Amino acid sequence: MSTKITAIVLNYRHRKDSCECISALKKSDLGEKIDFILVDNSPTPYNKKFFKRKFIGINYIPSSKNLGFAGGNNQGIKEALNKKAEYILIINPDVTVSKKFFTPLLKNFTDNKVGIVAPAISHKQKDGIYFGFEGKVDWSLAKPEHRNLKKNDSLKQVKAEFVTFACVIISANTFKKAGLLDDKYFMYFEDVDYCLTAGRKGIKSILDPSVVVEHRTSSSFSRPTGKLLISFKSHLRFINKWLRGSKKIKPFVNALLLYPYLYVLWTYHYYKYGR
Hints:
Strand content: 25-35%
Shape: globular
CATH architecture of the largest domain: Alpha-Beta Complex
Distance between the termini: 46 Å
Helix content: 25-40%
CATH topology of the largest domain: Spore Coat Polysaccharide Biosynthesis Protein SpsA, Chain A
Order of helices and strands: EHEHEHEEHEEEEEHHEHH
Structural class: alpha/beta
Number of helices: 8
Largest sheet: 11 strands, mixed
């Protein structure tokens, strides 16, 4: 294989998940031919020894501190670009791929306008398994909305306003044109922001439902409400970055009302129904 692919796994206190993710990638169609970078947002001397012993030849990058999703992945992206990667996989450690993975996704790049390609993502909800597809932004509230369905009955690729970066392949040329992820988003909204930024450069984002990965949604928060403040800050940044003048007012008011409401609701459910 002449195409150089690098996979970046961002670890934060989920060593078991990271190992399972890398192991699944290695067993996939091109897994033994790609380079691996593990960026550790929760580094310890033991972690370094563990990962290097578990995965011989892995490029282990310890963060100086928890840099969040964008900041952590940017470390890996810069290293991959320095090593002349042509395509870069960004994948959450709690995502597991099947054997049919790289080859069908990479076929989408035969269109030279395509720079971002993501699979469908299966995930559990209370009433069963759902499939997450592409998303679009409700600009009246500056609110990203994913398409979630109980069935994945289409194999047709979809041009998307944005895709989730829980699992995504991005071409090196896209990073050269659109830059790195905006690390002022500590977590959340960075994938939406990046797809929009790339779109303004004429780069297409594609959702390919012929490939499905499993997302177990491991949490780094002891309580679900822990992520609300981070999401709130990211949402405000998104509004401020992408809207101008009076168009900001309604989204700002909505965010100021929505997040306190979610905090009360999630706290109620946490104490009533337990973890």
